[in-house]
Amino acid sequence: MAKTGGYEGPLEQVAPCQWRIPKTYRADMRVDGLIFADDALIGQIKKDQGPEQVVNVATLPGIQKASLAMPDIHWGYGFCIGGVAATDPEQGGVISPGGVGYDINCGVRLLRTNLEWADIKDRIRPLVDQLFRDIPTGVGQRGAFSFSKPELIRLLGEGVSFVVDKGYGVARDIEFAEAGGRLDGADPGRVSERAILRGADQCGTLGSGNHFLEVQVVDRIVDATAAEVMGLREGQVTVLIHSGSRGLGYQVCDDYLGVFKNAPKKYGFELPDWQLACAPVRSPEGQDYLGAMRAAANYAWCNRQLLTHQAREVFARIFGKPWEALGMDLVYDVAHNIAKFEDHDVGGGVQKQVCVHRKGATRAFPPGHPEIPEAYAQVGQPVIIPGSMGTASWVLAGQPGSMIHSFGTSCHGAGRMMSRTAAIRLAEGRRTDKELDAIGIIARARGHKGLAEEQPAAYKDVDLVVDVVDKVGISKKVARLRPVGVIKG
């Protein structure tokens, strides 16, 4: 299937901000497709083949209820970015690496501080410069932390608690990470030697592409009660970290796409796109991938924890106080690319344990859900939505509508509307860093290409994306954050 050209199939508006692709569109669809978007965004969404990928996912064995896409949907590998699908293992439901992504547990975490913009504005340049010097960014960069193979095996199995026990964090960092920074059932023995080799010295590195560390300022509070619970207030300085499982996770995905290549024929089903390569959850291949994927997810949580440790050290050095005195506590850490077993209503009041694939999508559990920290029980799980580095990011809170509409899921970012190649072409003859500097954002990167690829024009309007999930009742707006400094690969 070609990546070029727009979607020309059916789209029926069935509710405000909800567009259905009926399963009658193609004979191989097992369920409907459903895209969350408003009138403005749906016009952008139809310009690429993301909706056709929603259709392809609707053909997967064991898929429940509908193949879903968030308002930040765009073309991806197999699944669209912003894609959500739940499969029932008891009905031959499959697990698909393309439904998790190459960067397993790419995700974001938000740190608050007790600093105000007035406290740092005269030191923002040296702060960003020091962050860029001390935190490894870019392709293939080695980190300050090197783990022996036995240590790495433990890290893959234990997740964040392993690095916290080594002194790179505090117990609160475990409590305020999704799943406690560890997926049960991780099996480091299912991770290849090549993947382990690639991960040995990359934990605590930012990487390249759309990964970043941003210094931000809270510029708007929308829900005062939820913001107070999360420790957020107007004018406050925050830090947002976006990274994943680096070369280790990429290699795990690549390894298992090869393993799964012949699984459809072996287990008696057909796929419309080979990039959807998958195997039944209950198959040996499916179980092996799940063990390796969970180990890579644990690695990603450790990566973000070590990035947090380094950021705290830089702030402590620049401001001459321990990070604890600066109030640099973790608000929350969420995964964007992951598959997890959760209990959901699959229609008609029927509750099942299903395998929820979130590909460029964020868990958004509502108030009272047993899997979110007790501190957030009254307001819902924090949902952290990074925008482009020239606009804003959002903090939302999960709402009951997520359990009704989207298997407990919300959007994950602004969503690209321009390829990296097109963005570089658009930036020819320009300096993205100079343009950002002119609007008060200090940007540092390994080269101009990385900034050009991620320029604000390459992304949808994050405010519009967030409006959609707020209106549908999937997650509600809490606070808007504007960037003042960013480091990238």
Summarize the structure.
This protein is α+β, with helices and mostly antiparallel strands and 489 residues long. The chain has helices at 39-45, 50-57, 117-120, 124-134, 149-158, 160-165, 171-175, 193-199, 224-230, 246-260, 263-267, 284-319, 401-405, 420-426, 432-438, 448-453, 462-472, and strands spanning 12-15, 18-21, 32-36, 66-74, 81-87, 94-95, 107-116, 212-221, 236-243, 279-280, 330-335, 337-345, 351-359, 362-363, 382-385, 393-398, 409-410, 442-444, 475-488. The protein contains 17 helices and 19 strands.
Fold and architecture overview:
There is one protein chain. With 489 residues, the protein is α+β, with helices and mostly antiparallel strands. Helix content is 32%, strand content 24%. It contains 17 helices and 19 strands. The strands form four sheets. Strands 7, 8, 9, 11, 15, 16, 18 and 19 form an eight-stranded mixed β-sheet that branches. The chain has a seven-stranded mixed β-sheet with strand order 1-2-3-4-5-13-12, sandwiched between helices. Strands 6-10 form a two-stranded antiparallel ribbon. α4 crosses α12 and α10 (246-260) packs antiparallel against α12. The longest helix has 36 residues, at 284-319. It is globular. It starts with 11 loop residues before the first strand and ends with a strand. The model has no long low-confidence stretch (mean pLDDT 94).
